[in-house]
Amino acid sequence: MDSLNPVDSTQFLQQQLHAVIALLEKQELENTLVHKSTSSHHDLEESLVFRQHHVRIQEKLFDLHPADIAFILESLPLDQRQTVWQAIKADHDGQVLLEVSDAVRETLITGMADEELANFASNLDADEIADLAADLPKRAMLKILRSLNSQERSHLNTILSYEDDQVGAFMDFGMIAIRDDLNLEAIIEFIRKLGKLPGHTDKLFVVDQHNIVKGVLPLQRLLTHEPAQQVAEVMVTDFVKFQVDHDTADAARAFERYDLISAPVVDNHGELQGRLCVDSILDFIREKSDDDMLTQAGVGEDEDLFSSVWKSAKNRWGWLMINVATAFASTRIIDVFQDTILQLVALASLMPIVAAMGGNTGNQTSMLIIRSLALGQINAVNVRRLIKKELTLALLNGAFIGIIIGLLSWVLYYNLALSIVIGSAMLINLLVAVLVGLSIPLLRYKFGKDPAVGTSIMLTAITDSMGFFIVLLLARMFLIGR
């Protein structure tokens, strides 16, 4: 595929998707006609139609990048997805499986024989096989392990030994390590004999006789310095490296901060174990971002867009039941104060405004906190100042919005006491919303939980309930019976 800007790329993918859908619809129509045929060669005609469409799909997708094919598969309903997958899977050596989401990968793997899965993995590197390991049946993994040589098996076991959020789980072994007592001419000759460099190679890693990383040699320095110079004279000793048990989120921030393309990964003794590359970091960031977006809305990260209704329903029931419980709690608050509402009907139209503003304010605060926690910007030293700043801001915003809502209430109902109550309720609820927006993500983070999970749902429930409660309580205290 030629180089495209992002807009052209999106249009290109949509065109390819629509072309594949058109082929599938044509195949379905022709299959229907064949089934209705009374010809004595019915089975032969059906087989020919099937093969013809397989070839057409293969030709359509043959030159596409595996990531583009993955997009098309993720955009198709299950039956059409399986049809396309059966047509193309033999030609792509497992790369497509690496690109699709976990949920879609599960639908593609289902029904594939262990031998077939093992063949898929035969052309993948150890780090790529590790990405698939969690989704592969045990028997298929055993076949894959038997097919690997001792070094590949060792690399795979090394990667699988780390947790999903550790740097070691994302490293690969396609690096070039050199000694510092060689000259640049020898290094250039060595690379020339290799024939090609591993992908994302922007630097070579310099190690001693014990494989301890001493520095890095950027390719730019290798090519611009005199060939007779020693590696020790040219290498960079102030460089970024990661330990295998470091948090990948911290590594991602370092890649962004220092514009890294690759970096060495070492053990606790400084011995070179592998490398971390920008493509793995981008995959991590994308997956983390997608997961956070879904979990904030109460949708499981493993849900396929076209999964069965029953599976999708079970995936969403948990947070929906929490919503039911919180909504029911809000109605109980209203029920307790129903006599107050009956005496001052205007409250029914004003309460939702207070509740909604509380929810919006709380979400602004919580999103800021979640982002700052993800970037590592919040710590024990500055958290108190952050809380003080946010509460001061809530007081200022609450007073400003409270005055505006109070004035609008007075214009609508010409009731000064009602206007003061609504304005005061707005101020109090915005303070509550900010406290909740601060507390939920900070407490979840303190206890080792993902601060993004469920925060929005819990926050909205609390601010809605408190908004109703504050308005009705103030109304009962200062309006009813006056």
Describe the structure.
It is a single chain. With 482 residues, the chain is mostly helical. The chain has 3 domains: 6-167, no CATH class; 177-296, CBS-domain, CATH 3.10.580.10; 309-478, Tetracycline Repressor, domain 2. Helices cover 67% and strands 6% of the residues. It has 21 helices and 6 strands. It has helices at 6-36, 42-61, 66-74, 78-88, 95-99, 102-109, 114-121, 126-133, 138-147, 150-160, 184-194, 219-224, 231-234, 248-258, 278-296, 309-336, 338-343, 346-374, 383-413, 416-446, 455-478, and strands at residues 177-179, 203-207, 213-218, 242-243, 262-266, 272-277. Strands 1-2-3 form a 3-stranded mixed sheet. Strands 4-5-6 form a 3-stranded mixed sheet. Strand 4, helix 14 and strand 5 (262-266) form a beta-alpha-beta unit. Helix 2 packs across helix 4. The longest helix is centred in the first third of the chain and has 31 residues, at 6-36. It is flat and about 90 Å long. The termini are far apart.
* Terminal CA distance: 76 Å
Number of domains: 3
CATH architecture of the largest domain: Orthogonal Bundle
Mean pLDDT: 85
**CATH homologous superfamily grouping of the largest domain:** SLC41 divalent cation transporters, integral membrane domain
3D shape: flat
What is the rounded Rg?
30 Å
